[in-house]
Give the backbone structure.
Amino acid sequence: MNEIITITQNIQFTAVQAILEISYLLSAIFFVIGLKKLSHPETARNGNLWAAVGMLLATLATLILYRDAQGNAISNWIPMLLSLAAASFIGYYISMKVKMTAMPQLVSFFNATGGAASAVISFMEFGAIPATSYGLALVSLLGVFIGGISFTGSMAAYGKLDGKLGDYKSASLKYVNILMLLGILALIIYMVVGGDSSLNHTMLYVVLAVSLVYGVTFVMPIGGADMPVVISLLNSFTGIAAAMTGFLYSNNAMLLGGILVGAAGTILTILMCNAMNRSLLNVIIGGFGGSSAETTEDGGVVKEINMSDTAILLAYSNSVVIVPGYGLAVSQAQHAVHELDKLLDKRGVQVKYAIHPVAGRMPGHMNVLLAESDVPYNQLVEMDDINPEMENTDVTIVIGANDVVNPAALTNPASPIYGMPIIEAHKSKNIIVMKRGAGKGYAGIENPLFGHDRTRMLYGNAKDTLQKLIEEIKSL
């Protein structure tokens, strides 16, 4: 009789485990579908929903079906459900209150929480790993290391994006970062293959502490124009750290989700580095964007244009290209610029938006911003596709952008952005630059485009300027 009961229990346990693994597999499929849909603006919203359903399925399956080695189900339901309820409320509240201009800060904050969770899990599980399980020990230490970097690095990025922290440029800091990186990797190898088990727990605190410090020191020197690449890199770190925790728990949902996030973030980082002609190695050692040199070529005489002349120039053009930047986001002018392009379209003017890969403060920032104001997706044109059209463009309007249209990237080897592909606004027949004032852009680099023979400056807050411009065009 006892044998029959034992066999029955084993069959039930196996069946439950099988259903749990199938649920994880379905969750992974939802993640992949969601990630695929996120690759295009028209399907991005549905992609988020697919991924959310996958995460919900994985969470519910774990709560209901998970069994430990002894066949016991999860018993601490109350604190887990309370945590889920609190997190859901906080997430909903933040999503309703956050402004589009603060979206990069929010992404950095989310990266930080994910990295912190992975680091804590890996830290707590290290002591339970058998001395001979070298693979699990390595995974645990990498989880602490990468998760710690992701946490403090993302919080430092949050502070820089929010204006609470400035750049700390020091030639020696790069070498300090290299020494810390090599030192912590050497310590991890020593702990895995030959460390004294009695000292490993103490050294674990050293790994955590150095990781937390390194996260800050590698982000602090990075210039403002390069922050989109850093956010993307930190996002990949969070995914890799999550994958490490998936290894520790043999949880396929965590493992596959972490791998997808890590891989997507890494690919995006490499693509963005190529878009800015930067080295990924320089990102890792903290030298990325650290140059403080400025352009030396003569920027020419800056000339202004009034509202009436701007309205006439735009209204009687055949083609207009709008280059949006962070200044557009700061002034919340996305709805006004869409109203302008609809008004010009009614007058027979072809309007397109030129989107630089790193415009704004995070990957895809301008796409998200313009999608909020219902700009048709076919009007958003990537840099490589719009540049061949610039010579035949009647008017290019640069709104709150600086570095992504700076011709010094093509002509001045002394410029920190030399070699970075740009939107070639300077080739247009007429260029109008909307700026709040005569100051430099976010990266603090002089822009000779402002003194170009065909450039006219239209100073003022982007939203107010666009609204006045719309009224001027309507009155023609």
